[in-house]
Specification:
Helix content is 39%, strand content 11%. The chain is of the alpha/beta class.
Length: 207
């Protein structure tokens, strides 16, 4: 039984929890039968670079949440955006900014087809993956949020799965037992079908 704790800035209220509250909630979910807890360890577009320093209160909390899930004997699932970076970085490099269109983008989305912005996207993921104590499941959706509608990203199902494969391989470097979940919700029907078709011949996605 997996439970997703949506601790984003969409005003679920969970982003205001301190660590004692997290401990109470996680213990309660364990008692109710949960064996996997999903959460959002970092949304770059909603945070500042100083929040990602190893000693920062926010990043310490995320690592503590992850460790508490493990200590309670449950698996850890993380929900990650494919291509967000810090808004301050987008301001410094406006040509990296993802283009809006039919996909659901939020703050800080960068074009994954731009070589330099892709390096930054991967640099940030490397820090997340390497510093969280354990990751059992990784879910990165095609959009909602995430994506880019520029010419280079026009065939988004292909771009999404290529980028996600690289992120999953990076995560598996630190967490070799990782299971990968692909998600195409919020895509159009034809793009959903395109993702499904590509995945039929892919061996790196578990679910």
């Amino acid at each position: 039984i997996g439970v997703f704790i949506a601790n984003h800035n969409g005003d679920t209220g969970m982003r205001y929890w301190d660590f004692p509250r997290w401990k109470r909630e996680l213990a309660s979910l364990k008692q109710m039968g949960a064996n996997t807890i999903w959460f959002i360890p970092f949304q770059f577009g909603q945070r500042k670079p100083e929040d990602f320093l190893f000693e920062s209160a926010h990043w310490q909390l995320q690592r503590n949440i992850c460790q508490e899930i493990v200590d309670l004997g449950m698996d850890v699932g993380i929900y990650s955006t494919l291509n967000d970076i810090f808004e301050a970085t987008i301001e410094e490099h406006p040509d990296w900014k993802a283009e809006n269109g039919v996909l659901f983008l939020e703050e800080g989305c960068a074009c994954p087809s731009h070589p330099e912005s892709w390096k930054e996207i991967m640099r940030l993921r490397d820090k997340v993956f390497s510093e969280l104590p354990r990751i059992d499941y990784l879910m990165t959706p095609a959009t909602d949020n995430g994506g880019c509608c520029c010419k280079r990203c026009e065939d988004w199902p292909v771009v999404y799965l290529k980028a996600y494969k690289e992120e999953a391989e990076l995560c598996r470097k630190y967490h070799p037992n990782l299971k990968v979940v692909a998600a195409s919700h919020a895509l159009s029907l034809d793009r959903n079908e395109r993702v499904e078709e590509i995945l039929k011949s892919s061996d790196w996605v578990d679910y």
